[in-house]
Design a protein that fits this description.
The structure holds 2 protein chains of 2 kinds. By secondary structure, chain A is an all-alpha fold. Helix content of chain A is 71%, strand content 2%. In chain A, a hairpin with a 5-residue loop joins strand 1 and strand 2. Chain A is globular and about 75 Å long. In chain B, helix 6 crosses helix 14. The chains are: A mainly alpha, B alpha+beta. Chains A and B meet through helix 2, helix 3, helix 9, helix 11 and helix 13 of A and strand 16 and helix 16 of B.
Chain lengths: 557, 726
């Protein structure tokens, strides 16, 4: 196959797995997870968190893999094919949310590299180092923040420029190093915690408070951690599934990715909590402070007290922040790739796509890097513009997941109706249950390539659990926001709901308006040789503008 | 020169004040000559006030109407006509009554309206019911009053128990005039100085000077003692407490039911005026006159038997109404009964029995064939389980029965207790404020401190002397002992003026001087005890524990203490007094990049309990009362505790918030529970690790074996191909 216009795919199973895990594991595992454990009763939190891995994240990831593997396009193409021409904008939304997050995620990734640099040079563990001063000084020097943001983007672009093979290679190296570094940190943390006689950090992390277990708040937090940390429903897996070989097992991959994600969370959580419990007077207050605060203020202080003279703290500091930067980088890679894939699908040259995306992420990220750097009540600097971006787009991720579920529901319903017309299925609710509901599962998941088959449980999770949980999640967050924010509907309040709805309205409205233009363009599917990706039964199946890579779209002839 | 005047005016002597205008007129030209720029320090009244005010001309009548201007005394007839006139002109707030309609009273007696008519002239006491929308409330058929409202507290203002004490009815009449004029007349400039409501009664700004706006003090010293009592700018002087708030009076009228009885003893008053003292009475009997009512005391002493003598027998007839009330009636202090039935004269004193308390009761009220075995003193004297049910005597007169039935038949909320929490009676003379008890010496009532407090307030605004009634002289059966002793009403006797028959030139300023007292009592009539308690409490030093002071125990509820003044009339009802608290957890909305955010739970109210075993330090004193609320906060709670206090008074009328309105304290909560057990955590670790790592291992194993199969398959295919090639 020719390099130009040919299909692109991972060389093997491990490549896909590592890339997916890399996408799933981000800073959320390392700084959000310990905070959630601390704030939700230690081990108590693990129970809902694990439950929702299986009830929310893995079913969605299975769906994403299945869709991407069949459509062989990025998010826009996938929705165009699976949901129909009218719904290509959903894919654009998914791509936009991911990219918009990428704008500021590059800045955050830059922070982690800066802290690796500080750690390795020993700047964080001398006598009398005030970690707040270090943090404030860094955040307030725009040049430095932009430099590290730029560095992250350059590294990311370098990693993805060459396509799937390069992505998998980088991810394998980074992920293996991440595991190793986290284990190193964990080892040192446990040593620290044990040196005062008790492993109280570990004890806390694995002790259930049965009173708290029945608090809805803990379950909502477990759901949110699972929903946001695992990248489920965000389109990452659709994107990486494009590069799957034909006989990839989508279900097994989903389980592997989800479990690996949670494994890393446990290791990181244990490392962070043990270290903090080893030295802090009020460890829970420390661990439940703002996230960047734990990571960039508390942890350096804690790590500085690691055993082993100068070497221990140095190892711990450098190791931890390097691991953190690797976690951030791999997520950055998937974010950029998600966007790039959509460009490539629409006929853009990969190199051009990569540079366009990289430049966009850099320039649109600059405000997050330098604007509205404020001090909170404790005198700690924080980037308010970045926070507001996160506030606006973070919740949008959940809608990407909703669109995926919607696509599945719609497919099942249409399939059933078509079958009824042809006399293949019974009309009525019973017929819908037996023919419509399992249609997506039968047609795209249990295709014969999988070792693991999914049964009715998946249908139940996608058709019932997902919408219920989605509503609970959004209602609890937005309800909380409405209850706790002054002037919540005013769109000029950066922490309100009004600003979220306004930006969503503008972006969503724009995308719906652009939908016609979007589907008038040819879409090039990345179907590897030998992979049968028949889409004739899908709404996009009769779309003449959807062609394989290398082919020409009819109108352009 | 001017300093000389100031120095002298601080210690004025009567002679000097009289001579002052002369002195000033002599010295003024010299002053002008010597210090050209210096103006005289003082001003004349008409420089400051309107002509009317400066000449004490009341705004409700022409200058020439001497009675309405309080330059001449009202008689019973003019007073009654004026009351009727004002009731007709102010139908919304005034309703005119005479006596009561009657019916079955609180003691089960069937009485007619004639029961309240004076013995001799046959008039019932005229009175006004004063309240907002006076004809729109509940109807009281016994009283004949349509202005009863459950949520308005009642106040009774009574004048002229004693016939000759003429200022004691003139003052309530002035109260009536002021209410009629001020109600709804918001922002009236009483003194015409261009300012409104700038000088209310009493020392409103707390600087120790009654003249809050300083207009009297700004006058030339010669004008500062307009009432000539020797005190410059004292109570009753022009410019002192002269511009009260009409809004306040209007609100008072709308919030209270005022029962204004200016002349209780009509019989005696007519007799005193027309028969006993020759006009002008202030010359014929300034400090004497007719005191009692006109009961026709018989030679036999047995009431039903009529006296053959149709005329009043001044040497024998009459009952001292203010010794005739039932509470501790007949106690041999300051009142006299006949030594034996039929005697009119006090054999010990030899003179007119001016304090005769009325006949001994002859009815066996409880029908137990024992007479008068349980007299009215609030105790069950005969141990039969009933209190005060068979009295010794008292309330035998139409006038005192009128007061008794008026009091006892006014029960808007039907709880059996009198509605009159505040009562006021005017007498003459001595410039005193008297509070119960009267019947015992060296005794204190349960509300002693509180009674002193309100007495002090009224003494301040009148510049009279506040004292316990019995410290003047003991009296039994008086109005206030009965009101306070039987009905718990805060009752004050104002001994106003300096004579029984005050010279008519003094009527206006003495009435003005005592005007504020009536409004003060009206104001405090909702809950006088609590108002006194609050005023006496060191509320500013009451404090809620700050977060630093809270002692968080290792386990269990967290106590939050409030230190309050021992006098503070706190309520322990959780709806009035409570700690409002909420725990604040890290918010799930916490952004990954921003400052710490909190998620609040709703406020919870926790009730207070009194800690008896300890006292707290409040201000300088170490005997504050500790109120403690025990907050049910689990040991595993972390984050912040927000707390504040709402402290309500017993009546629920006042609410105090701590630390300050709209704010709260924040206390950091740390985890108080053990972090976990080794065994339990090992168990959960095994489960979690089994699920996550075990699951991951299984997945990876399946994946790798797949790859092996694939490799095997590929190898097989290759081999096959090679074979076929071969």
């Amino acid at each position: 196959m020719s390099k130009e216009g040919g299909s692109d795919q991972f060389s093997g199973r491990m490549g896909l797995i590592f890339a997916s895990i890399g996408a799933a594991i981000g800073t959320g595992n390392i700084w959000r997870f310990p905070r959630m454990v601390g704030a939700n009763g230690g081990g108590t939190f693990l129970i809902p968190w694990l439950f929702f891995l299986f009830a929310w994240s893995i079913p969605l990831v299975i769906a994403e893999y299945a869709m991407g593997k069949r459509s062989r396009t990025g998010t826009i193409g996938t929705f165009r094919i699976f949901a129909g021409k009218k719904f290509a904008w959903m894919g654009l939304w998914t791509a936009w949310i991911s990219t918009a997050i990428g704008f500021y995620y590059a800045v955050v990734s830059g922070w982690t590299i800066k802290y690796f640099q500080l750690g390795i040079t020993g700047a964080l563990n001398g006598e009398g180092v005030d970690t707040t001063e270090v943090w404030n000084a860094f955040l307030q020097s725009s040049g430095q923040v932009i430099f590290f943001q730029f560095l992250v983007i350059v590294l990311t672009l370098a990693a993805i420029l060459k396509g799937a093979k390069a992505i998998e290679k980088v991810n394998i190296y980074l992920m293996v190093s991440l595991f190793a570094l986290l284990f190193l940190t964990l080892f040192l943390s446990l040593w620290m915690d044990l040196s005062d006689g008790t492993l109280d950090g570990a004890l806390f992390m694995f002790t259930v408070d049965f009173d708290m277990l029945f608090e809805p708040e803990v379950w909502i937090n477990g759901l949110s951690q699972s929903a946001w940390s695992c990248s489920a429903g965000m389109g990452m897996c659709i994107t990486y599934a494009v590069y799957m070989s034909k006989d990839e097992d989508t279900v097994l991959n989903a389980f592997t990715m989800g479990l690996a994600n949670n494994s890393i969370s446990i290791i990181a959580g244990l490392a962070v909590l043990s270290a903090i419990f080893a030295v802090s007077d009020d460890p829970l207050a420390t661990v439940t402070g703002g996230s960047s605060a734990i990571t960039f203020l508390a942890l350096p202080e804690v790590f500085a007290q690691a055993p082993g003279g100068n070497i221990g703290p140095l190892f711990m500091m450098a190791g931890f922040f390097l691991a953190l930067s690797f976690a951030a980088m791999t997520s950055m890679i998937s974010t950029v790739e998600l966007c790039v894939r959509n460009f490539v699908d629409h006929g853009y040259d990969r190199k051009t796509s990569v540079f366009i995306t990289g430049a966009a992420i850099f320039f649109f990220g600059i405000p997050s890097a330098v604007m509205w750097i404020k001090l909170d009540s404790a005198g700690v600097a924080f980037p308010e513009f970045l926070e507001v971006q996160d506030h606006i787009w973070g919740y949008g991720l959940m809608f990407s997941g909703l669109f995926i579920a919607y696509t599945i529901w719609q497919y099942g319903y249409k399939k059933w109706q078509a079958d009824v017309e042809q006399g293949l299925a019974e009309p009525g609710f019973k017929g819908y249950l037996t023919t419509g509901v399992p249609a997506f599962r039968n047609d795209f998941i249990n295709t014969g390539d999988n070792d693991m088959y999914v049964n009715r449980i998946w249908d139940i999770l996608i058709y019932i659990a997902f919408p219920v949980l989605f509503i609970i999640l959004m209602a609890s967050y937005f309800g909380d926001m409405i209850a706790n924010t002054d002037d919540v509907w005013n769109p000029s309040n950066p922490h309100g709901l009004g600003i979220i709805l306004m930006f969503w309205g503008v972006v969503g409205g724009l995308f719906i308006a652009l939908n016609k233009l979007l589907v008038s363009r040819p879409l090039y599917r990345n179907v590897p040789e030998g992979a049968e990706c028949d889409i004739s039964m899908l709404p996009g199946g009769d779309d003449q503008m959807i062609v394989l890579v290398g082919e020409s779209a009819p109108d352009l002839q | 020169m001017s300093s000389k005047v100031v120095a002298i005016s601080t210690r004025p002597s009567f002679g000097f004040i009289i001579a002052l205008p002369l002195l000033l007129s002599l010295l003024a030209p010299i002053a002008n000559a010597s210090v050209a720029q210096e103006e005289p320090t003082g001003m004349a009244p008409e420089d400051v006030w309107s002509y009317d005010y400066a000449n004490m001309i009341f705004p409700w009548a022409d200058e020439g109407e001497r009675i309405l201007q309080f330059k001449e005394y009202h008689t019973y007839e003019t007073m009654k006509l004026r009351m009727m006139r004002l009731a007709e002109d102010n139908p919304n707030i005034f309703e005119f009554h005479e006596g009561l309609l009657g019916g079955t009273n609180a003691r089960g007696e069937v009485v007619g309206a004639d029961a309240y008519e004076g013995w001799y002239y046959g008039h019932s006491s005229p009175w006004l019911k004063i309240t907002g929308n006076v004809k729109g409330g509940d109807y009281n058929p016994f009283v004949g009053d349509k202005g009863n409202y459950e949520d308005r507290h009642d106040v009774m203002i009574v004048g002229n128990h004693h016939a000759r004490e003429w200022m004691s009815y003139q003052t309530p009449i002035l109260v009536m005039e002021v209410i009629a004029f001020s109600y709804g007349n918001i922002g009236y400039d009483n003194d015409g100085d261009g300012q409104v409501d700038e000088d209310p009664w009493g020392d409103a700004d707390g600087d120790g000077v009654l003249d809050d706006d300083g207009d009297c003090l700004a006058l030339d010293a010669s004008f500062q003692d307009s009432n000539g009592d020797g005190t410059p700018c004292g109570a009753g002087d022009l410019g002192v407490d002269e511009d009260y708030s009409e809004q306040w009076i209007t609100d008072l009228v709308n919030r209270r039911e005022i029962y204004l009885i200016p002349m209780l003893n009509v019989d005696g008053n007519i007799y005193d005026r027309e028969e006993y003292c020759a006009a002008p009475a202030w010359e014929s009997c300034p400090t004497s006159g007719w005191r009692k009512n006109l009961r026709d005391n018989t030679v036999t002493g047995v009431t039903p038997m009529p006296d053959l003598d149709e005329e009043v027998d001044p040497s024998c007839d009459g009952v001292d109404l203010n010794r005739n009330y039932q509470f501790e009636w007949g106690a041999p202090l300051g009142a006299t009964g006949p030594l034996f039935p039929g005697m009119c004269y006090n054999p010990m004193g030899g003179g007119n029995n001016d304090v005769y308390n009325g006949p001994v009761d002859t009815v066996d009220q409880d029908g137990d064939f024992r007479l008068n075995e349980d007299h009215v003193d609030g105790k069950d004297d005969d141990g039969d389980g009933l209190t005060d049910e068979d009295w010794l005597g008292g309330n035998s007169e139409p006038e005192t029965k009128f007061i008794q039935d008026m009091t006892e038949m006014n029960d808007d909320n039907a709880d059996g207790a009198s509605e009159f929490k505040a009562t006021l009676t005017f007498h003459s003379f001595s410039e005193l404020v008297l509070y119960p008890w009267g019947h015992c010496t060296n005794c204190e009532s349960p509300d002693h401190q509180q009674l002193i407090y309100h007495g002090d307030q009224m003494a301040e605004m009148t510049q009279y002397t506040n004292m316990q009634s019995s410290d003047l002289y003991p009296t039994s059966g008086d109005f206030c002992d009965w009101h306070y002793g039987v009905h718990g009403s805060y009752c004050y006797t104002m001994e106003i003026g300096t004579a029984f028959h005050q010279h008519e030139d003094d009527v206006d300023h003495i009435a003005v001087r005592n005007l504020g007292v009536a409004f003060y009592m009206t104001e405090v009539a909702d809950n006088p005890r609590e108002r006194a308690d609050l005023a006496m409490s060191d509320i500013t030093n009451q404090s809620l524990q700050t977060p630093d002071e809270v002692n968080i125990p290792d386990e269990g509820n967290i106590p939050i203490d409030m230190c309050i003044d021992k006098n503070f009339p706190y309520s322990l009802d959780v709806s009035d007094s409570h700690v409002m608290w909420r725990t604040v957890k890290p918010s799930r909305m916490q952004s990954d990049y921003g400052p710490r955010e909190w998620s609040t739970t709703g406020w919870t109210n926790t009730l207070f309990e009194v800690v008896d075993s300890e006292n707290c330090v409040i201000g300088e004193s170490k005997n504050g009362t500790i109120l403690r609320a025990s907050l049910d906060i689990s040991e595993t709670t972390t984050g912040e505790l927000h707390y504040k206090v709402m402290l309500g008074t017993l009546s629920g009328g006042d609410l105090y918030e701590y630390p300050a309105q709209g704010s709260y304290y924040t206390l950091d909560l740390s985890y108080r529970e053990a972090y976990g057990s080794v065994l339990g955590s090992l168990f959960l670790f095994a489960i979690v690790a089994g699920f996550v790592w075990g699951g991951l291992a299984v997945c990876l194993r399946m994946m790798l074996s797949d790859d092996e199969e694939f490799i095997d398959l590929a190898d097989a295919v290759l081999e096959e191909e090679m074979k076929t090639e071969d």
